[in-house]
Amino acid sequence: MATAAYNFKVLTDTAAAGAYATTLAGVNDASITVGGNLIDVSAMNGTNDFIQRIRGLKDFPMTISGFFNPADTAYGHIKANFTSGTQLGIKFDYSGGASFLVSNVMVESIEVSASVDGAQEVSISLQSNATIVIAP
């Protein structure tokens, strides 16, 4: 069954393990990619003509976009993490308790944009720095 996207929210915490109680306001687009590198281990042995791969390192890059509010508490958490280079706790809550919980992320970039005929917007890129928990 499909779930309406307006139920989705992004929560932050200043610590790597916390309550995740601070909702990032103004989010209108968010994505997380749960993936991993595949390593080619093919050998020239004369018996196999298919590529062989093994799983390498896993990665969970995330992007968040929305309306910019510099006074938002969750944005303050994200900005402080970017400035200090410390860990940030983040949770992508996609449906009443079901979520992607990434305990440690690093902020890769923060882009603020504005145009004369539109609202101020922010785009945030996050990179995982630990494991992910996918809650049902």
Can you characterise this structure?
- This protein has 1 helix and 10 strands; from the N terminus they run ββββββαββββ.
- By secondary structure, the protein is mainly beta.
- Strands 1, 2, 3, 6, 7, 8, 9 and 10 form an 8-stranded antiparallel β-sheet that branches.
- The longest helix is centred in the middle third of the chain and has 12 residues, at 73-84.
- The model has no long low-confidence stretch (mean pLDDT 84).
Write the layout of secondary structure elements.
Layout: E1 9-13, E2 22-23, E3 27-32, E4 35-40, E5 53-59, E6 62-67, H1 73-84, E7 88-95, E8 98-113, E9 121-128, E10 132-135
Antiparallel strand pairs: 1-2, 1-7, 3-6, 4-5, 6-9, 7-8, 8-9, 8-10
Biggest sheet character = 8 strands, antiparallel
Fraction of residues in H or I helices:
under 10%
Order of helices and strands: EEEEEEHEEEE
Roughly what fraction of the amino acids lie in strands?
over 45%
Condensed summary:
This protein has 136 residues and is mainly β.
Task: Record keyword descriptors for this entry.
136 residues, mainly beta, 8-stranded antiparallel β-sheet, two-stranded antiparallel sheet, 9% helix, 50% strand, elongated
